[in-house]
TrEMBL record, chain A:
The protein, known as: 2-oxoglutarate ferredoxin oxidoreductase subunit beta
The keyword Lyase belongs to this UniProt entry's keyword annotation: no
MF annotations from Gene Ontology: oxidoreductase activity, acting on the aldehyde or oxo group of donors, iron-sulfur protein as acceptor; thiamine pyrophosphate binding
Organism: Desulforamulus putei DSM 12395
Pfam family, one: TPP_enzyme_C
From TrEMBL, chain B:
One Gene Ontology term of the molecular function aspect: metal ion binding
Keyword terms of this UniProt record: 4Fe-4S, Iron, Iron-sulfur, Metal-binding
Domain 4Fe-4S ferredoxin-type stretches: 18-47, 48-78
InterPro entries, sorted: 4Fe4S_Fe-S-bd (IPR017896), 4Fe4S_Fe_S_CS (IPR017900), Fe-S_Ferredoxin (IPR050572)
Highest taxon listed in the record's lineage: Bacteria
Pfam families documented for this protein: Fer4_21 (PF14697)
Transport is among the record's keywords: no
Name this protein carries in UniProt: 2-oxoglutarate ferredoxin oxidoreductase subunit delta
């Protein structure tokens, strides 16, 4: 570890519990780089996570952290932000945590446009519990609960967030580390609900079932399948079929929930 | 309170010469750094220990540090 980022970690908790080559460590690295660039005060920054491998992230970070219950990170984060809007609140959640059990919290946090920066570690699987398919597991992929291939269609989480009302939506991968760091910075700066979907790799529970090779091979797969919007535009429909866009996907303006609430309070206090 | 200037790809300062240091206590031998080093600096040694096999080839690009999921790599700028 580089000395300049040591201050953001609970060093005594390292090495982390993630498997060899797991992408979660790279996501966390990009998060602390973004926080360092933003010069955020560690004592005024809160990390809220749910349950799962990804959600263990909060335990390694030296901020005020809240490791909550499965699917409820956004609910707890909403409470923190509502009570203390001056705090910077980040939500660290897995694809299962966020889109299965926590799916309802997700759409309503987006709909309210509450100022939270939500980072979804999308490894397309329930990693922690041994590899059951999640609502983000691609169709036909193998999981312990879909040994013959997943029958279901996955969510397009970015589109779901946009439809629900999120005001900043971006996607990166654990290969696209600079883009990921920049997206976290942009997401933080957005005064409203920001979703950053990170396509990350779970060599143990997803890669192994789907013959994706070593952790390095999974990173190379991300490099070859995550493309910029400009490149995507120029691809044929066949070429597009296995590609996804990385970068900023959506940005718009809408009233922010806690600011609206403050206005309401001031209106009645002023009487 | 830190407000450090970090470089884009990696948090390593783009300075040469760099010494690659592996923290063996944190390394999980995943092989990512070896696969992504374009200069063949790193290699698996005995017991899959990651060794800095060709230190003279290192260009200080920081890719290994950037992709190491376990923060087990540090690039040190040698004293001039
Ligand atoms: C209420 C409840 N239901 C189920 C579980 C079991 N459980 C723990 S983690 C998890 C899924 C985690 O998947 P994801 O959010 O994608 O995280 P990952 O481990 O892949 O990072 C489940 C179902 C639980 N802890 N609590
Ligand atoms: S099971 Fe998958 S997501 Fe969980 S630590 Fe291992 S590689 Fe990472
Ligand atoms: S990337 Fe990090 S954990 Fe993986 S082998 Fe290299 S030094 Fe070890
Ligand atoms: S800094 Fe670059 S050249 Fe040097 S060991 Fe790391 S990846 Fe290889
Ligand atoms: Mg998952």
């Amino acid at each position: 570890m580089l000395p300049e980022i040591e201050q953001y970690f609970r060093l005594e908790k390292l090495p982390h519990m993630w498997c060899p080559g797991c992408g979660n460590g790279i996501v966390l690295h990009c998060l602390v780089k973004a926080i360092d660039k933003l010069c955020l005060d560690q004592d005024r920054t809160v990390m809220v996570s749910g349950i799962g491998c990804a959600a263990r992230a909060s335990g390694y970070l030296d901020f005020d952290t809240l490791h909550t219950t499965h699917g409820r990170a956004l609910a707890f984060a909403t409470g923190v932000k509502f009570a203390k809007p001056e705090l910077n609140v980040f939500v660290l959640t897995g694809d299962g945590d966020c889109t299965a059990i926590g799916g309802n919290h997700f759409i309503h946090a987006a709909r309210r446009n509450i100022n939270l920066t939500t980072i979804v570690f999308n490894n397309n699987i329930y990693g922690m519990t041994g590899g059951q398919y999640s609502p983000m597991t691609p169709n036909a992929c193998r999981a312990t609960t879909s040994p013959y291939g997943n029958l279901e269609r996955p969510f397009n989480l970015a589109e779901l967030a946009i439809a629900a009302g999120a005001t900043f939506v971006g996607r990166a991968t654990t290969y696209h580390t600079k883009q990921l760091t920049d997206l976290i910075i942009e997401g933080y700066k957005n005064n409203g609900f920001s979703l950053i979907e990170v396509v990350t790799h779970c060599p143990t529970s997803f890669g192994r079932h789907n013959k994706m090779g070593s952790p390095a091979d999974m990173l190379k797969w991300q490099r070859d399948h995550g493309v910029t919007a400009m490149r995507y535009e120029n691809l044929s429909p066949e070429e597009r079929s296995d590609k996804f866009i990385v970068g900023v996907l959506h940005r718009c303006e809408a009233p922010e929930y806690t600011a609206e609430y403050q206005k309401l309070q001031e209106k009645f206090r002023g009487r | 309170m830190g407000c450090n200037i970090v470089t884009d790809l990696s948090s390593v300062p783009r300075l040469r010469p760099a010494a690659v240091v592996i923290n063996q206590a944190w390394c999980k031998k995943c092989g990512i750094c070896i696969a992504f080093c374009n200069k063949g600096v790193l290699a698996f040694g005995e017991g899959n220990r990651v060794e800095v096999a060709q230190p003279e080839n290192c260009v200080g690009c920081g890719l290994c540090e950037n992709f190491c999921p376990d923060y087990a790599i540090n690039l040190e700028v040698a004293d001039q």
